[in-house]
Amino acid sequence: AGEMSEDTTELYIPAMVSGVPVTQVAERGFYERGHIIEVHLSDGLQILSDFSFSRCSGLCSINLPDSLTDLGKVALGNCPNLQSISIPDSVFNFGVNIFVFDTSLTQVSLPDNLTSVPSGMFMYCSALESIHIPETVTCFEVEAFLNCTNLKTIKIPDGVTTIEWSAFEGCHSLSPVVLPEGLQSIGEYAFLGCHALTSINLPSNITRIENSTFADCGFESFDIPDNITYIGEAAFYSCTRLQSVTIPKGITSISKWAFGYCESLKHITFPEGLKVIGPFAFYYCSALQTVELPDGLLQIGNYAFSECKVLESATIPASVTNVGSYTFNWDRKLTIYVKGRSEKPDTWSDIWKDPSTTVVWDA
Question: Taking 90 as the threshold, does the pLDDT of residue 4 lie above it?
Answer without folding.
Answer: no
